[in-house]
């Protein structure tokens, strides 16, 4: 049995057989370190289900001796030392947790294990583990002086070793620094030699922790030394974190009450008022106060301390949330005059627009931490997405881009120049998300080159799918197909249909077809396009219940390929196009795109019966939430037009009346008047004189408003009007309309015919002659 066989036994869970095999193998190969190591690990894993005490006995009797035996055989390899320390210190911790403390490291044998830790420290790439083990050994032994020395050495090492990795440096230093603070707080003799408050004050800006209790522990230490300014600084870091955590909420409420007592005694720095208002707004139920208490409190503070940023900010925030935007703007402006803060500014921008429709044109230079800038970009992004007017969206997006740009630059300074206080949640992934949102905003502005660059930058800092999508989209939009091809290859190297969002993956496959079509063999890629399109159609037939969220991505992939194939068939003879789309429509009757194209082909052929049918099927097959207003309005126009041309006047008139208001809102005036002209003709034919006259009046008002000259469209409307008037016996008004048409030299000859055949009643007709 060789090593591979033994390893297979281990990974299949046959530990006893693996151990037996290793023992027999080592009889003939006593120096095989790989098998020795495998035997040690297997013995540990076999004991583990029997409890931590059983592990302790196995480590002492078998595992540690085996690992020790490896050291002379591979003196430069840290594996044995690492695993000895990892096993024994981990087991000690587990036993302590279940109140069965037993020691592997004792005063008698500590030199061996400290030596192993120092051996790891001596090799730079293993030093992080070495310091961790050394610190844990001294903690286990209670050697406080040695522990303090090891902690200081570790902090100094991390500061240099991780100098180009801000996140990792902050986290490693913070863990070690906090151990130092706990040690000094516990050991008063050591604390006498150190100024614990100075250490906290100096280290706080770089401290990060996912354990809220550590911040409150620091605040308690500050309180014990009567340094409430420092306690406040600590707590203001807490409020930037997870406010859903019960421990955090309880701690903040507790300190709110403490500060209330201190304020009554004269403690009132500006930041404490901000803290009080923030907690009152966030947790009124825990404080047992009214929800608007913080607003009333803010107004009171403004009266007493009129230069307090927080009071103006929170007064404005209350009014903003209540919808009193005009008043909110006034308070926000006062707050910003005291302190330029991005959240205040963003709420002011929204309030000002909602109050009077005006927008800021510039963005101040903020000093907020990068994550806060990014978050307010996200908030402004959400606000602009609710805007319908394109000019407003564009103006808001300009502001949004400037906020994201500031966030991007702040992140760069944070990670590359070590600027700003440390922020647990503002990590490199957050920077990458900022890059993604900025790339999306640039793309929306048509600034594709910068979008490509910032998306590429984002992928240097974190790996997540959205950045790939943004990069590929921007590259394709800028016709930079080589960059798009490279980006797509990178994406497909990392993701497949199982690891990626399936429908996003389809979109990327569609993008690859487009890119390869531009760069390679067009005929081959067209065949690939057809294969992919039919695979997409088949998927929908097999999975008709796709969620609305996924359907957008599914539709995007489909539209990408459909557009490519449309462009290929666009210039082919109508018969070829008709056959192509009719074959697809027959095989995939639930698809909208074939019907959309057939509708246009039939319109070219003036086969209006088929136009009507195809247009209706398109409307039925297209998901309502995906069809944009313009496409819907144009399709409705084709249906109404075809109803008229095949003589289905009542059906056409009914549809026209149902959708007239929608179409008017969806189309430009130049297009809407054509729709309106068919409405006039349909109502004329269906005998609705009153409705027709109303439409004619509306038609005329648009022409007058736009200052348009008489043309064939208006001529058709007036002839339809005249005909309806004639048919209803109103010959005088009919001839008035005819005379207007005849006043133009290039009038339709049918007007002459009407003039000659529509006779006015003669004098004798009144007597019945």
Automatic annotation (TrEMBL):
TPR repeats: 309-342
Zinc listed as a keyword: no
Keyword terms of this UniProt record: TPR repeat
Keyword Aminoacyl-tRNA synthetase: no
Record Pfam families: TPR_10
InterPro entries given in the database record: TPR-like_helical_dom_sf, TPR_rpt
Protein name: Tetratricopeptide repeat-containing protein
Organism of provenance: Sphingobacterium lactis
